[in-house]
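Cast an eye over this sequence plus C-alpha cells and explain the fold to me:
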Amino acid sequence: MKLNLEVELDWIDDEMNIDDTIKQNVINSVVGKIQKNVEDKVEKEIENIIGKTIISKINKRTDGLFNEFLTREVTLSDSYGSKIKCYPNVEAIIKERFDQFMIEQVDKNGKTSTSSYDSKTPRVVYIIDEQLKKFSDKFTTDAVKQVSEEIKKHVAEGLTQKLGTELMKVLKVNEMLELPSKK
C-alpha cells in the first residue's frame, strides 16, 4: 500500500518538541488514510450485499405474485356484469383458447374464413398437411438431386470408357504398342 502524507504544523505545544509533534501528526495521518480505505471497502461490500438481498427478495415476491395469479380462480363476465364462465385457473383459460384456435375452420391458405364457398378444414389438419407437404417436397427434391448426380456420374464413366476404347481403335494404339487387338 502506498501512502502519501502531508503534515501541517501550525503550532507546536510547549510540552512537546518538534519531533513529537511531527510523529503524532504522521501517526494521525496514517490512521486517517487507513481508516478511510477500510470504510470505503466496507461501504462497497455492504452496498453489494444489500443489492443482492433486495434483488433476491424482489424476485421471490414477483414469483409469488405470478404463481398466485396463475393459480387463482378466474370468472369471465359480460358487459352487464353477468357471470359467463368460471375457470379454476389461468392455465385452463389458455388451454381452452388454444383448443378453440386449433379446431377453428380455415381456408386453403390457413386463414380463418367465414365464406360458405371456401373449402374449410380445422387449423390443426391444415398445419399437419402443410408440414407434410414441406417434408415430402424436400425429400423428393433431395432424392431427385441425388439420383441425378449418380446418373451423371455413371454416364460420364461409361462415356469415358467407351470413348477411350473407340479412340484407341482410331489411333491404332494397340498396333503401335504391338498389343493383341480386341474385337
About this structure: The mean pLDDT is 84.
